[in-house]
């Protein structure tokens, strides 16, 4: 089976075309060498995949005949990814969820006021005149005709 079709069938990528693009960008390799989409996958191969800034490693146990359900993936591959890679992924996800959970929408009025207080709009209150802002005085100017 072709590697792009294999990665799609074990649900590593959502579509086969996405799998082919990732292979073309040299994010997929078998052993130590980068591969092309047409490379045949055999049982026992170790595939290295770079996805979401994480280096995954999977070992092919069995080749599926077509796309399989998520529950059956473990029958066809064995995940041998380092545990520190998963820790990196977990840290990145935690750093993104700093204030609001995904999908909560735009800021409320209270959030907006807090952001305005944090940023502060002191420039408007301190400098009411542009001449004062730039340090120019009105009396020293000479009119040239």
Question: Could you walk me through the main structural features you see in this protein, from its secondary elements to its overall organization?
Answer:
The chain has 145 residues and is an alpha+beta fold. Helix content is 38%, strand content 14%. It has 7 helices and 5 strands, in the order ααββββαβαααα. The chain has helices at residues 3-9, 16-24, 73-76, 83-96, 109-119, 122-126, 130-134; strands spanning 28-30, 33-34, 46-51, 54-60, 77-79. Strands 2-1-3-4-5 form a 5-stranded antiparallel β-sheet. Helix 1 (3-9) crosses helix 2. The longest helix is centred in the middle third of the chain and has 14 residues, at 83-96.
Q: What structural class should be given to the helix and strand makeup?
A: alpha+beta
Query: Using only CA atoms, what is the Rg?
Result: 28 Å
Mean pLDDT: 82
State the total count of DSSP E strands: 5
The amount of beta strand, in percent, is 5-15%
H-E string: HHEEEEHEHHHH
Name the strands of the widest sheet in spatial order: 2-1-3-4-5
Provide the helix percentage.
25-40%
Q: Can you give keywords for this protein?
A:
145 residues; alpha+beta; 7 helices; elongated
């Amino acid at each position: 089976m072709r590697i792009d079709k294999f990665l799609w069938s074990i649900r590593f990528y959502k579509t086969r075309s996405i799998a082919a693009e990732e292979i073309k960008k040299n994010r997929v390799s078998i052993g130590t060498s980068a591969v092309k989409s047409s490379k045949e996958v055999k049982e026992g191969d170790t595939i290295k995949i770079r996805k979401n800034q994480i280096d995954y490693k999977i070992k092919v146990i069995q080749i599926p005949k077509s796309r399989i359900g998520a529950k059956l993936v473990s029958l066809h591959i064995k995940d041998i990814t380092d545990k520190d890679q998963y820790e990196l992924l977990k840290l990145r996800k935690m750093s993104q969820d700093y204030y609001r959970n995904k999908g909560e929408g735009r800021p409320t009025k209270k959030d907006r006021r807090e952001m305005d207080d944090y940023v502060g709009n002191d420039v408007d209150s301190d400098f009411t005149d542009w001449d004062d802002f730039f340090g120019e005085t009105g009396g020293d100017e000479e009119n040239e005709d």
